[in-house]
Amino acid sequence: MKASIKLQKLPTQFFAALAQKVSATISEGRDIINLGQGNPDRPTPAHIIKALQSTAEDPQNHKYSPFQGIQELKEAAANFYKREYNVDIDPNTEVAILGGAKTGLVELPMAILNPGDYMLLPDPGYPDYLSGAMLGDVYYDTFPLIEDNDFLPDYKALSPEVKERAKLIYLNYPNNPTGGTADLSFFEETVAFAKENDIAVVHDFAYGALGFDGVQPVSFLQAEGAKEVGIEFYTLSKTYNMAGWRVGFAVGNKDIIAAINLIQDHLFCSLFPAVQHAAAAALNGDQSCVEEQRAIYESRRNVLIEEAHRIGWDVKAPKGSFFAWLKVPNGFTSEEFTNLLLEKANVAVASGNGFGEYGEGYVRVGLLVSEERMKEAIMRIEKLGLFKGEPASIL
Hints:
three-stranded antiparallel beta sheet; 12 strands; alpha/beta; 42% helix; 14% strand
């Protein structure tokens, strides 16, 4: 038996391929500083773990979850949005519980689009957005995110044909991979654009807790009329270091939420109830752990940028997320520079072209190692001599 034609058309799983390559070098006994990953490196806060432990002991939580998730978690999501963003959410009709935001992002085209429809995707962007398009048998156009426009889309630059055929647009701020951010006026412009062109909006708010320099990221749903045209995905993976727990939710437009719940009724029986109770404890509980985590990432960002500038690497500091989007030296493609760092400096980064055509010329660096390891990584890169004088071998 062979994989289906649909599966054969899927793009190569970028992050899986990257992880395999890094693992292979580590298996050779080399000390690799992995800046290419997107996996939080710190533990889940203790009070969330304790909530899981106590609820896992309750036999009632050993049964199937309600298909669309437990009411406590839906209400916690609604309370979270009211507290953090002053957005009113109806927990009964405007919340869908997800096994991680990736699940929702990939399944959504199957839920609200028809085969042959078109969607709009950012370039560069999270590679798994493409998986949703392929599995949904839909086509896509892309819009460039360029540094000169602060990594925001230029809606005016889209052709009439592209706007006419698009049914859905994906946005993501703070942005993976660029670290760019969006303000309320941009989301207000997005709502107007969506209404004018009859396009549904999906905002991937995975890094919603991670804004730097005293600026809190803005929720798309804070824009007037946002719930009329779209939804927002939120994950606990980054905010609470719960990546392996696989829990998130979507909030917003009740018709889109209903479609997500319907497709999930046929695919899943929600999540382990104890995980849902622990997620509710995270959303409702003491949020000082969130600020502590944000401050750590900002400090790591500052170390990375300062060290890069010290060696003559002209890079800009990201405004949010836990990634930095760094230009490669002159004379290198993204992939060439990525391979050189891994082979000659024992430093792993993610090649920018893996995120799209407009990712060429950049690499993505995760702020997911200690400041000491971050400094060590830049020192190793410095020894290559790429930014001052002629390259010199470090082997």
